[in-house]
Amino acid sequence: MENNDKKLPANAGTNANKANPGWREALFAVCVVISVLPFMTPALALFLGLAFAFTVGSVCQKTAKKTSKFLLQACVVGLGFGMNIKEALASGKDGMLFTIISVIMVMCVGWLLGKLLKVDGKTSYLISAGTAICGGSAIAAVAPVVKADDDQISVSLGTVFVLNAIALFIFPPIGHALGFDELQFGEWAAIAIHDTSSVVGAGAAYGDKAMETATIIKCTRALWIIPLAFATMAIFREKGRKVPIPWFIFLFVLAMIVNTYLSFPEQLSKGIVMAAKKGLAVTLFLIGSGLSVKTVRNVGVKPLVQGVALWAVIGVLSAAVIKFC
Question: Quick check: 135 and 156 in contact, CB under 8 A?
């Protein structure tokens, strides 16, 4: 009796999947569109990307990697159109010394914690930069300079964004417990909370004066992205190779100059900043979507431990200085 059954090739399942791969790309495209919706913050976009990576898997990674690198730098430049150099320097001149000391201290303590915890050097540096200056914006500006890969960027951004979200809820009650007035709380929030968005949110929850003070001081600290980027060039210089010049940082400075000194239409500058923020959200989705479960397992909890410890150091010390000095 002849057996008409034929054995299926071992890769039949794989071939079947390849025959109809479109649903994954379509879902990926839908998530990109969701990333630019009004309710989506950069933090939510990153978590959307991570959820996509862990459930669906990697999609369009070569294209996503190239696109995210370009978008990351373009968005940093766009954010410059929302900064006024004169106002930031004028408002921050009284606390300039404290700002300098705190930024240098956080970077040094972050380096030491990274060494003790054996965190990857670039990831440790990015977490320190995000804590010292302005969270995701600082990481976005420094990452191309250190030539960080998508995994290192994802881990550092994820660490900073988690702590940033927590700060939004716990800082106002802690401020009340410490007896801070609105001015003191605004100063503390600007120094100890990572991203400008949560700084403004926490300040608004404390009072109008706290929000105004926090926003101005945070913008002043954001200017430290520039010297940090150039210091980073020297620190991560490889032997026998020229120092990579982060041209987008020069464009970032140029954008601030244009916004400050030229008669640049306010509506246009707001539009550019809004587009930059939405572009940053898309960038973070693309970066998050490329992070694998295997990478997370390999990295472990050490970066989060470093982020929490570094955050505690700057939070406690800055609170003590504001309270007693």
Answer: no
Any idea which residue has 């976005």 for tokens?
140
- Report the C-alpha gap between 273 and 251 in whole angstroms: 14
Answer yes or no: are the C-beta atoms of 274 and 73 closer than 8 Å. Answer: no
3-state secondary structure of 161: helix
Burial of 313 (0-12, 13-18, 19+ CB in 10 A): middle
Q: Determine the Cα–Cα distance for residues 187 and 209; give it in Å rounded to an integer.
A: 11
**Taking Cα atoms as reference points, which of 145, 81, 105 lies closest to residue 273?**
81
DSSP count for the chain of H helices, then E strands: 17, 0
Please identify which residue in the block is written with the tokens 């839908």.
30
Mean pLDDT per 10-residue interval, the chain, length 325 residues: 46 44 82 87 78 81 76 79 71 66 89 91 91 82 83 83 79 93 89 79 82 74 79 72 60 84 84 86 80 65 90 91 85
Residues recorded for the chain: 325
Give the integer Cα–Cα distance in Å for 56 and 34.
Answer: 16
Burial 4-35 (b: 16+ CB within 10 A, else e): eeeeeeeeeeeeeeeeeeeebeeebeebbebb
CA distance 138 to 146: 12
Please measure the distance between the N-terminal and C-terminal CA atoms of the chain and give it in whole angstroms: 97
Indicate the pTM of the whole model.
0.65
Closest CA to 252 of 223, 217, 284: 223
